[in-house]
Amino acid sequence: MVRAAVLPAVGAPLEITGIELPEPGPGRVRVALAAAGVCHSDLSLCDGTMRVPVPAVLGHEGAGTVVAVGEGVTHVAPGDGVVLNWAPSCGGCPACARGEVWLCANALNGAGAVHARRADDGSELYPGLNVAAFAEETVVPAGCVLPAPAGVPLTDAALLGCAVLTGYGAVHHAARVREGESVAVFGAGGVGLAALQAARIAGASRIVAVDVSPEKEELARRAGATDYVVASEHTAREIRALTDKQGADAAIECVGRAATIRTAWESTRRGGRTVVVGIGGKDQQVTFNALEIFHWGRTLSGCVYGNSDPARDLPVLAAHVREGRLDLGALVTGRITLDGIPAAFDDMVAGRGGRALVVFRGV
Q1: Max intra-chain CA distance, the chain
Q2: What is the reported pTM?
Q3: Within a 10 A sphere around the Cβ of 210, how many other Cβ atoms?
Q4: Residues in the chain with pLDDT values less than 50
């Protein structure tokens, strides 16, 4: 038996309870978690914004050590450090054939397979976003584990599995920020802080962080922000004033609200790019008129998992970490246990802090 954070039903409180995992069968890997990040996507599963089968073990951003492997698994072995990949590509769908593995049509198929059973009553549990990282141990398909990069502690490497891949990818792959450009990042949570660091790595000349909380300014500046704007009805005007009255070359929206998306778009220059990373609900409707779309010549695009290929991008991120350009610790504002996840969700809803990191015993 291992302890895990279980969502019994959409809208229900999270439960920290014991679960029974199966032994890894063919093509599967058992991992002892070192750490797991508390991501807004987990909160989106709780409130039903994103739908997966429940009851489920949540958590999708993690790293740990291989305990055992099933038949046919050759790329990792017991004792190896691994980073969990919650969206493994199938390699055979049209998106994968185009090289757009982040849009794989089958990436979340594993969410519908029974993952474990509750220790108290034997009821079936599903794996949330495939990997069920809010647990002391997990059993996942082999495609959901990637060798952990050398020189990066496993507790830090957990952040590479979602926040950093997403924030870095939004800047480098989706917005394609070039040296000397200006960037506005909306939302200074875990992904937003990673995006700020990515903009600095890209050589952006002006990096404006925007958040509703004045208390996040120090966090944002430590991540690379040159300016900090407390969100208001004047945000777009303030960003234009900071960018020679032109607007930012690129805006990265990490909130997922209609008003924020609209403001991010208005904050960019004529011909600017807005990338939406935040996951919003179906009720969040963004409107534009036809004339302004023509006149401003701006682009608005979605971004899934940072448009990243984890197998390709993890080594790149690791090199940035080893060479001191990417500070993973700067994203973390709380190190907690499994029991601290509900409070971390409350902080996220209230807009407090950056990334909370669940650190498991023995690490």
Answers
A1: 63
A2: 0.95
A3: 32
A4: none
